[in-house]
Amino acid sequence: MMSGESSYPTDDVLPSFNQDYSCFACGTTTGFQVFNTDPFKEMFKRDFATDNHKCTLHDSAGGFSPDSAGIAIVAMLYRSNMLALVGGGPTPRWPPTQVMLWDDRLGRCIAELTFSSTVRNVKLLNEVVVVALERKVFVYRFRDLQLIEAVDTIQNPRGLMDVASSPSDSRIVLACPGLQRGRVLVVFYSQAFGSEGPAAQGKGKEKESPEMTDRQQHDVTHVRHTNSVAIIAAHETPLACVALNSDATLLATASQKGTIIRLFTPH
Fold first, then answer.
1. Is the distance from CB of 112 to CB of 100 less than 8 angstroms?
2. Would 244 disulfide with which of 9, 162, 210, 221, CB 3.0-4.6 Å?
3. Rounded distance, CA 253 to CA 8, Å?
């Protein structure tokens, strides 16, 4: 690599940690890399420009193009073989409006979610796939990619949101911006709707591919249901960070003012 030349799709590269923070992943201009946190070391990488993998479900060009391999977002599912990928950079592997579910055991993408605008963030749990757009957050059941809920947010260009499982009360907790500046919307879901999916196979083990059609497209007005909701007035200025700990007992927030971090108990 030439001096000053970056292998990452943007200058602002943020690692995406897995659910227990034992690993993190970064997208590159040719694929993605996964690192162990302690001790720090590269675990593996995928270079779509050289690897002979079937990376798309629908390739209208009739073949794989090594010139289009950039990945902007990588979401891990613990240490399993399932990841979510979003194309990015100057030559994205897929349009930035698509979330591709990658099965590393099979070495290919096994499903996709397509949206009408750019995907800003993706999070995975054993039970759910959560996708943030600039003004919407979508929650899908993992085992069949059925849309559970579409949540409206204030303008959210960074895709701020987080999701975690709460083992103490068997709930899934979603935190994202609300409809007012500085507000955090916390939504609680029962884990029951995903209990027959990959969660039954355990963390860190090989996950079976979700049962679904090749292409999943959803109307942004489709809303399944809502469980209990809380609205937290976290800051007076726009949010800059929203994060849950691994068991959803603590919520941390920061604003664009950048002078304070606040902790809340979301329950």
1. yes
2. 162
3. 27
End-to-end CA distance of the chain: 49
Tokens, residue 220 = 């942004």
pTM recorded for the entire structure: 0.81
In the numeric block, the tokens 């270079």 are attached to 47
**Using one digit for the tens of pLDDT, what is the confidence trace for 238-251?**
999 999 999 999 99
Q: pLDDT, tens digit, for every residue of 75-134? A: 999 999 899 999 998 889 999 999 999 998 888 889 999 999 999 999 999 999 999 999
Give dist(CA 62, CA 59) in Å, integer.
Answer: 6
User: Between the CA of residue 119 and those of 6, 72, 135, 174, 258, what are the distances in Å?
Assistant: 23, 10, 10, 17, 25
Planar angle of CA 88, 92, 94, nearest 5 degrees:
100
Tell me the pLDDT band of 11, cut-offs 50, 70 and 90: very low
- Structure-token pair, residue 242: 């929203």
Do residues 76 and 25 touch, judged by C-beta distance below 8 A?
A: yes
Q: What DSSP designation does 230 have? A: E
Name the strands in the sheet holding 251-255, side by side, starting at the edge strand that comes first in the sequence.
239-244, 251-255, 261-264
Q: Are the beta carbons of 188 and 173 closer than 8 angstroms?
A: yes
Question: Positive or negative CA dihedral for 105, 109, 115, 119?
Answer: positive
In the chain, how long is the greatest CA-to-CA distance? Answer: 53
Instruction: Judge whether residue 214 has pLDDT over 70.
Output: no
Which residue's structure tokens are 């302690």?
38
